[in-house]
# Entry
Amino acid sequence: MSLTATRPAVRIGAFSVVLRITALLTVIALVAILLGLFALDIAIGEFRIPLGRVLDVLGGGGTRAQRFVILDSRLPRVLTAVVVGAALGLAGAVTQSILHNPLASPDILGITSGASVGAVAMLVGLGGVSTGTAAALGVSFAALIGGLLTAVLIYLLAWGRTTTGDGGVMGFRLVLIGIGVNAALLSVVSWLLTRATLTDASHAQLWLSGSLNSADWSTLIPATVGLGIALVVCAGSARTLAALRFGTDTTRVLGVRIQTQQGILIAAAVAAAALATAAVGPLGFVGLAAPQIARRLLRTPGEPIIASALVGAIAVVGADLVARTLFPIDVPVGVVTAAVGGPFLLVLLVRTNRKATL
# Structure
C-alpha cells in the first residue's frame, strides 16, 4: 500500500514544515487586516490625514505638522496597541494550549490582576513622579514582579496529584484557583486606591481602565521586550508546545519534561502579559478571545501562536479605533474590549458546559 502526502512539505536544510495553504492564506489575510486598521487608526482623529499622506509621512515625507501628529503623537499609540494586543493574544494561546482549557487566559487566571497590584502600588508610591521613562520602567518592573509572583502562587496552590497519580498541575484546578486569586487581588487594588491621594488615585484609575491615552515610546519599549521574550521562547519550544497539547501520557512518551517545560512557557506568557498590562493597564478578554478566534479561523487542533498574536493585535487596534471614533468622548480602549469580551466569555462558558455534559 502506498502512502500519498495530503499536504506539501517544505524542507530547508535540516528543517522541514508541512505547508497548509488555507492556514497560510488566513494568516496573510490577518496581516492585511492589521495593516489596514493600523493605517486607519493613524489617519483618523481630530486632525484627519488622508491614508496616502500617512504612507508618505511614514516613508519620510509630509509637512512638519503632519510628521509631528503622526510620528510623535499617533504612531507610538498605535504601535503600543499592536504590541500589547499581540502580547496578550500570544500569552493566552500559550496558557490555553498547555493547560488544555479555553478559560486559561492571563486575565481569568489573575495574572493581569497581579500585574495591576504591582503597577498600582508603584503608581501610588511614585507620588507626583508619574511620567517619563524612569517612571514607565519602574511601573513595568513592578507589574512584571506582581505577575510573576501571582503565577508562582497560583501554580503552587494548584499543585497536586493528577489523574495518573503523579504530581503536577491540572488545568481545571488551576483555573478555579486563579479565579479566586484574581478576586483577592482586585480587592488589594481597591485598597491601594483608598490609601492614595486624589491625584494618584485618579491617575491609577485611568490606568486601570485600560487607556492608550498616555502611550508613548517609553511605555512601548517594555511591552516590546515582553513580546520579544515570549516569541523567542515559543519559537525555541515549538515542538515542545505542540507535544504539551496531547495528554500527559503521550507527552511523557515523547520525552518532554512536562513540569519544567510548562514552567518555562508559563513564565514567558506571564512576562508578555505583565509587561503589556504595565504599558496601558488591564485589557479584559483579549487574551481569552484571541486564541479561540484564531483557532476557529485556522481550524487547528490547538491554539495557534502567531495567528493568536495577530488576532489580539487586530482586536486592540480595532477597539482603539472604535473608542476614538464612535463615541462623543475619548473612551478607554479597555471599556470596548470588556464590552465585546463579556458576551464572548458567556458564549464560551455555554459551549464548554455543553461539551462537558455530552
